[in-house]
Design brief:
There is one protein chain. This protein is an all-beta fold and 111 residues long. It is 0% helix and 70% strand. It is built from no helices and 7 strands. Strands 1-2-3-4-5-6-7 form a 7-stranded antiparallel beta sheet, with no helix packed on it. A hairpin with a 5-residue loop joins strand 2 and strand 3. It is globular, with a radius of gyration of 14 Å.
Length: 111
């Protein structure tokens, strides 16, 4: 079955801060045509500091509109006071991207 290596990035807001996010991950198609992904290099950056994260894995599907829809979990680590709320929590996430590459990554903390 197909496997792909993906590098992605974007800009957004996190805790009211302007951030940039970069990630590198691989995805493998499963027999039911869904995809399972694992990251290997991930970072969130802002003027106030940097946070790295490990993507605990995600599962997703291609959408009828030729985009993607994924959900999964991540663990962050930072020494930045501004981003310290990321520490000591597991974050569930949703990731939706359209065919043009416009994406939304939503994080939901679990203590």
């Amino acid at each position: 079955l197909p496997a792909i290596d993906i590098h992605t990035g974007g800009n957004g807001k996190l805790f009211g801060l302007d951030v940039k996010s970069r990630a590198a991950f691989n995805s493998n198609m499963r027999p039911d045509a869904s995809w399972v992904s694992h990251t290997y290099a991930d970072v969130v950056m802002c003027a106030e500091g940097v946070a790295t994260y490990k993507f605990g894995g995600g599962v997703g599907n291609m959408t009828e509109a030729e985009g993607v829809s994924f959900w999964g979990g991540a663990i962050f680590e930072t020494t930045s006071e501004a981003l310290s709320e990321l520490n000591s929590k597991y974050y569930m996430f949703t990731y939706e991207a359209d065919a043009e590459g416009k994406a939304v990554w939503e994080l939901y903390p679990r203590v």
